[in-house]
Specification:
The chain has 171 residues and is of the alpha+beta class. 43% of the residues lie in helices and 19% in strands. It has a 5-stranded antiparallel β-sheet with strand order 2-1-5-4-3, sandwiched between helices. A hairpin with a 4-residue loop joins strand 1 and strand 2. Helix 1 (3-19) runs antiparallel to helix 6 (138-153) and helix 4 (106-115) packs across helix 5.
């Protein structure tokens, strides 16, 4: 990572926590988590990478050099963007989230966790973490994704440049 990109990403991480408590994650090209500022990573990381469909889509989406918006069956939204070296080899995937884009009820989340076959004893701690996640208007979250891309690539993009995998609603 260039020194400039690293400095930009550190500043970006601080700025997005000023308005909302949005977490920042970095994964290497093998999807190993190399950094996060999330204190509940043990709970949230498996929700992100434990989703087989989402994980299957994550690396191919990087081929287009645009941030990808990913949504899971709980209604959690994440944005992933790709850092590559000068010849286009993937170095890191930087991710922000998860966030909710609309209010939710505890009952809705409980039902979703139940449908994911999460044992009853594990549901309550997960529910507590989920209830603390921010609810952010979708356009604001997309703006954060556009800013993330600028920090990584130095390129200004529009909402229309964000990638939305066809099956992201079914995750």
């Amino acid at each position: 990572m260039s020194e400039n990109a690293e400095r930009n990403l550190r500043l970006f991480q601080e700025l997005i926590t000023c308005a909302h408590n949005v977490y920042f994650w970095t994964y290497d090209s093998h999807l190993a988590n190399t950094y996060t500022n999330c204190p509940d990573a043990a709970v949230l990381n498996p929700l992100f990478l434990g989703n087989e469909e989402q994980t299957r889509l994550l690396l191919p989406l990087g081929e287009k050099d645009r941030p990808a918006v990913l949504e899971d069956s709980l209604g959690l939204l994440w944005i992933a963007d790709y850092e590559k070296d000068t010849v286009g080899v993937l170095l890191y995937i930087h991710v922000i989230g998860p966030v909710f884009i609309e209010d939710f009820s505890e009952r809705t989340l409980e039902n979703a966790l139940r449908s994911m076959d999460i044992p009853a004893g594990r549901r309550q701690p997960i529910l507590k973490v989920l209830e603390a996640l921010p609810v952010i208007p979708v356009t604001r979250f997309y703006e954060y994704g556009i800013m993330l891309h600028y920090c990584i690539c130095g390129e200004k993009i529009a909402f229309s440049d964000l990638q939305y995998p066809e099956s992201h609603k079914s995750m």
